[in-house]
Amino acid sequence: MAKILNQRNIIIAFILFAIVFPFITQNGYFIHVMTLSFIWMIGVYGLNLLAGYTGYLSLAHAGFFAIGAYSLGILTVKAQMNFWLAFVLALLITSVLGFLIGLVALRTKEHFFAIYTLCVGYIIYLVIDKWDSLTEGVRGLIGIPAPGNIGPLSFETPLSQYYLVLFILLLVVLVMYRIVHSLTGRTYIAIRNSEDLAQTIGISTTKNKLTVFVLSTFFAGLAGALYASFVRFIGPDIGNIVITFDLLTYLLIGGIGTLSGPIVGTILIVWISQQLQFLQDYRMLIFGPVLTLLIIFYPRGIVGAFYTWKAKREMKKQLQSSKTEAVVISNEQVKEG
């Protein structure tokens, strides 16, 4: 059982399930919710890369999510730009702003970094909310177009958008897999474990932290742009700090610093929230204590807890095997004597 439930198999099972999901259910609402789940997963992967693998918790993630969404909305609705050109520019704008903010933010460490990014996120929210001439303020942007056609492929229907978002999510998972299992990923983990030690062995921590910060904002902007094109209407609330805490909840429950944690946590919490909609105003009274207990007893979330159990199980088997070998050797020595 433990061999079957490794991270690669969990991701493969998720891919197969996601592909056949629209055929299992004909309910349009469920397909809508699952598409939104995929979009949140992309944002959570960006947060995981920075917080889980590098050890820097950014609380401005919702701000960059909103920048991606509003960049696409403004370029398509107000500038009447081609969708895919606007989409690429939205990602570029988010990444450039992430680079500029990261230059200052990464001069701080630990809780100072979290506080600084929290302030940045709130400033982004205020700019979106108050700059009426550009963002339409509390009225929001209406009429954001669906993804444009790519040759014969059309993305006007919810089902086609579902598979488009799924395809982009799979690309994100592939990129994350390649990063985590590369020398770059090991460098990020080395910075997380001990930044001072990483510096002593010749790792350029400033360069690597800035790179991972920009990658994190890129994923947040990608999720935001997809959200805007899928929902077709956006308001300042998408830049609210609550969105960051939602993404962080998905990550912590699924498993921070794990490859399959964002998938597990997002799917679990989104669908539980759907079943508990009648308690929407009190959901943090439910998730708050659960999250607190999870962090106390299983700080690496559900996936991390499973791998901890798996490691202990394998260690126990090795100890039993060693004891058995020692008994056999002892018996042989007695016979020879």
Automatic annotation (TrEMBL):
Compartments where located: Cell membrane
Membrane topology: Multi-pass membrane protein
Origin superkingdom: Bacteria
Major site of localization recorded for this protein: membrane
The entry's keywords: Cell membrane, Membrane, Transmembrane, Transmembrane helix
Positions of transmembrane segments: 7-24, 30-50, 57-77, 83-105, 112-128, 162-180, 210-235, 247-272, 284-309
Descriptive protein name: Branched-chain amino acid ABC transporter permease
